[in-house]
Specification:
Layout lengths: L3 H13 L11 E11 L5 E10 L1 H7 L13 H15 L6 E5 L2 E3 L5 E8 L2 E14 L3 E6 L6 E5 L5 E4 L6 E5 L4 H8 L18 E6 L2
Parallel strand pairs: 1-8, 1-9
Antiparallel strand pairs: 1-2, 2-6, 3-4, 3-7, 5-6, 7-11, 10-11
C-alpha cells in the first residue's frame, strides 16, 4: 500500500538522482474541508478533516489495488489504504496543531476514517478527537506541513464549519495566500516553538474561534 510517507520517500529519492520533475516544492497538494466539533456544554471535542489529494498522488496511491470495474473503487476496497495512510500521518502529528487559550492541545488517534474515490481523486476523511475536551475563550488551529512537502489549501466553499458551537462563538479563517498575512508571518515566531526554521509554518491555514 502507498502511504504519504512512502510517496515522500520516493520523491526524495528522485531528487537525489536529479530527476527534474521532483525538484520543486511542494510535492503533494491537498484541498481540504474541516469541521470543528463541539459538545452540548460548549467544549470542543475534536476536528473532522476531509482531504482531497491531487491527481498525481491519487494515481500513485491506487497502484496495485484491484477493482472489478475500471475507475471505480468502493470504500471497502480502499479500507486497507485508508488505514495505512492514517497510520503514516501519526509521525507528522496529522499536520494539525491546536492551542486552547495559548496552551498546546494534543489529539487522540483518528477515528471514523475512510477513503473516498470521486471525480478521479481520493479524499481521506478522518476525525481527530482531542485528548481532553476544552472550553477555551480562544481556540487556535493550524493545518500545515512544517517541511512544506505537502501544500494544504482549503476549498472555496465552506472551508471551515463549526458543528454544535455556542451561538456567540466567532470564527476567523486566514489562508496562507493572504499577502498581508504572509508578510506578518515572516516577522513572527512560528506557531509551535518560536523557531523560524520551521519553513512550512509560513504557509499554514489558520483558524481562530473566539467564544466569550
Amino acid at each position: 500500500m502507498i502511504s504519504i510517507r512512502k510517496l515522500l520517500f520516493a520523491l526524495s529519492s528522485l531528487m537525489a538522482l536529479g530527476v527534474p520533475q521532483a525538484e520543486a516544492h511542494p510535492h503533494v497538494w491537498i484541498t481540504g474541508n474541516s469541521e470543528l466539533i463541539y459538545a452540548a456544554d460548549g467544549s470542543i471535542t475534536g476536528v473532522r478533516h476531509a482531504w482531497t489529494f491531487d491527481d498525481m498522488f491519487t494515481t500513485y496511491a491506487l497502484q496495485g489495488i484491484e477493482t472489478k470495474t475500471k475507475g471505480e473503487y468502493s470504500r471497502e476496497q480502499l479500507a486497507p489504504l485508508a488505514q495505512v495512510n492514517v497510520e503514516s500521518l501519526k509521525e507528522f502529528a496529522y499536520f494539525t496543531f491546536a492551542k486552547a487559550d495559548g496552551k498546546k492541545e494534543k489529539f487522540q488517534e483518528p477515528v471514523d476514517y475512510y477513503l473516498e474515490y470521486k471525480d478521479s481523486s481520493l479524499t481521506l476523511h478522518f476525525t481527530l478527537p482531542l485528548k481532553t475536551p476544552a472550553k477555551p475563550k480562544q481556540l487556535a488551529l493550524e493545518v500545515f506541513d512544517p517541511s512544506y512537502f505537502i501544500d494544504f489549501s482549503f476549498a472555496d466553499k465552506d472551508p471551515i464549519k463549526l458543528v454544535g458551537a455556542p451561538a456567540a462563538c466567532q470564527m476567523k479563517f486566514e489562508r496562507p495566500n493572504d499577502a498581508t498575512a504572509n508578510a506578518k508571518r515572516l516577522s513572527e515566531n512560528n506557531f509551535m516553538d518560536g523557531d523560524n526554521s520551521n519553513y512550512g509554518a509560513m504557509f499554514a491555514n489558520k483558524i481562530t474561534v473566539d467564544c466569550p
